[in-house]
Amino acid sequence: MTDFEIHILGCGSALPTTRHLSSSQIVKLRDKLYMIDCGEGTQVQLRRMHMKFGRLNHIFISHMHGDHCFGLPGLISTLGMLGRKGDLFIHGPKELEDFLEPILNLFNKGLGFQVCFHAIDPTQHTLVMEDRSVKVYSIPLHHRIPTCGYLFEEKAKEAHLIREMADFYQIPVRLLQGIKRGDDFITAEGEVVANSRLTRPAELPHRYAYCSDTAFFPEIVPIIHGVNLLYHEATFAKQDIARARETNHSTAAQAAEIARRAEVKRLIIGHFSARYEDEEVLRLEADSIFPGTILANEGLVVTV
Ligand SMILES: [Zn+2]
Ligand SMILES: [Zn+2]
């Protein structure tokens, strides 16, 4: 399926480097854009990647560390300048509103749209948002402060109509939509033609899990089990595991171990510490446990 993609806007960790921006990515699904985290530099990166600001209606924030949310004031201000009218929904810890409310009052008095805060409890695995295309669930993680990842579950598509069968039974156009959704067809003679003879099943819905920031936390395995694509933080290499423990982050090997236990189809690692000039060391560590591990990078687009 090519209409479910992850666009990496930033995959560095808290300290700025010239190689990476802080955390942010876009989930693109059936022409809609959903943002996860919004570190500094996010809006510039949106421009670079030619993403349409107007298609963005929902932003999901994992936790209240600056490298995951300092980009919000600038982005909201820009949306105002671009003449946005529709509501913007921001999902995340309840402290998000305390952070943004004074800034909005100070700089964005005449904003032409509503910023709607949806406080979530990062310690619970619950449904956060649902629309026609997707369901988004929280994934409780283990970090220094309350943090959750997000699981994007595409909604099932309609079945494919077998054109020759529709023509053969001369099914009226007004009934086709119902048949794609599972109706049988009854001929003028009263013969019931089973739906399974008229359609081919749609592909199984795909799932994407974003897990950053977190220490090694196998409790997430049942929630993310079998996802098509997992983004897991890999801030440190094995040699710095003590630092990973201290700061509640993961090593690349731990990220791969989670992917292996959860039997995910593919793994991207990101949230790289500024200390590594070349992240190849992280990729190799992860690859030895989960072959085919992908290194995140700004501008990278991965199909779910
Ligand atoms: Zn971080
Ligand atoms: Zn953090």
Pick out its properties.
single chain, 304 residues, alpha/beta, Metallo-beta-lactamase, Chain A, seven-stranded mixed β-sheet, 11 helices, 18 strands, globular, binds zinc ion
Protein described:
This protein has helices spanning 42-48, 66-69, 72-81, 95-107, 163-168, 173-180, 195-198, 221-224, 241-247, 252-261, 280-287; strands at 4-10, 24-29, 32-38, 56-60, 88-92, 115-119, 127-130, 134-140, 148-154, 160-161, 185-186, 192-193, 199-200, 207-211, 229-233, 267-270, 294-295, 301-303. With 304 residues, the protein is α/β, with parallel strands linked by helices. A seven-stranded mixed sheet has the order 6-5-4-3-2-1-18. Strands 7-8-9-14-15-16-17 form a seven-stranded mixed sheet, covered by helices on one side. Helix 4 links the parallel strand 5 and strand 6 (115-119). Helix 10 (252-261) packs parallel to helix 11. The chain is globular, with a radius of gyration of 22 Å. The model has no long low-confidence stretch (mean pLDDT 95). Residues 13-14, 23, 65, 67-68, 213, 271 line the site of one zinc ion.
Give a quick summary of the entry.
With 304 residues, the protein is of the alpha/beta class. It is 27% helix and 26% strand. It folds into two domains: 4-157 and 203-303, Metallo-beta-lactamase, Chain A, CATH 3.60.15.10; 160-200, no CATH class.
